[in-house]
Amino acid sequence: VQLVESGGGLVQPGGSLRLSCAASGFTFSLYYIRWYRQAPGKGRELVATISSSGRITNYEDSVKGRFTISRDNANNTVYLQMNNLKPDDTAVYYCNAGNYWGKGTLVTVSS
Question: Whole-angstrom Cα distance, residue 53 to residue 38?
Fold first, then answer.
């Protein structure tokens, strides 16, 4: 089983990034997928959730209207489009499916 995140990096405030999470080794299309993040010195928090079909999504309040979660079940990939990024979005972003976790990708928002 693997979840591999990519797409992180350094971006200026107001900028955009798209994170990807490529899954393998399990039946991806049966799982809800979640993006979590962990900022330096803080606990891990849930950012966004997408249902197995992709029809249902939920977001943490601080990212509503700025982040969009989506998935491609044909290619076992989930995405997190992040727009209007703020310094408070700086964190390691993790992909989660049930008991499976990726290793994370670092997003740094700074001028």
Answer: 26
